[in-house]
Amino acid sequence: MNYPACVLMLAAALAALPAAAEKGDRDKPMNAEADALRYDDLKQTSVFTGNVVITKGTIIIRGARVDVMQDAEGYQTAFVYAAPDKLAFYRKKRDLVDEYIEGEGEKIEYDSRADTVKFIKQAVLRRYVGATLADETIGNLIVYDNPTDVFTVDSSGQNRTASNPSGRIRALLAPRNKPGAVVTPPPAGPTPTLRPSTTLGDDKK
Question: What are the beta bridge partners of residue 62?
Fold first, then answer.
């Protein structure tokens, strides 16, 4: 195995993580932990298995298995698989605000060419303001577009649970505060009328 080439390929595979992430993330080193790694230099693929944790700046990816493939143009596609009865995990900080995007699913797909993240089966997407949960969306398939911060949700009737027998999507969306809103103070009552005086200073009597 060509270990220097392996390290370079793995670094490239995570270098294209979402552009909407914190700008400093692109300059941060990539760290990967797993129980095992299989790298194929000919096919330009890497397979991490066993409690995989990948971090790059504020970005965190967790799963039982992560497959990374790179095409001839240098674009990467990553597939994150959850362990049985668990969900794969993705988290990043949004740029310029104290907000975080978190997503879970039985499978997560990241496409660096389209710069999108897909959460597949038992999909959940959350937005946190600081440590406070602001939005949460549940569906069978959630596609998050990083450059535009736009996401779509599909149920396909396949997200049925005991608490949601119809399998319809569910969303909790908190109202957004309007930036730069001007608060008008209440009126302070009538303006007092000043009485003219013909003397300066205090009159001493």
Answer: 53, 89
Query: 149 near 96, Cβ under 8 Å?
Result: no
Buried b (16+ CB within 10 A) or exposed e, 48-78: bbeebebbbbbbbbbbbbbbbbbeeeeebbb
Q: Please give the pLDDT value at position 75.
A: 80
- Report angle CA 16, 17, 20 to the nearest 5 degrees: 115
Q: Name the nearest CA neighbour of 102 among 75, 142, 147.
A: 142
CATH of the domain at 115: 2.60.450.10
Q: Which helix (H) or strand (E) holds 62?
A: strand 59-70
Q: How many domains is the chain partitioned into structurally?
A: 1
Q: Is residue 194 part of a domain?
A: no
Chain position carrying tokens 């080439």: 5
- Is residue 88 included in any domain, yes or no? yes
pTM passes above 0.90: no
The DSSP output letter for 194 is P
pLDDT of residue 166: 59
Is pLDDT at 104 greater than 70 in this prediction?
yes
Residue 47, domain extent? 3-173
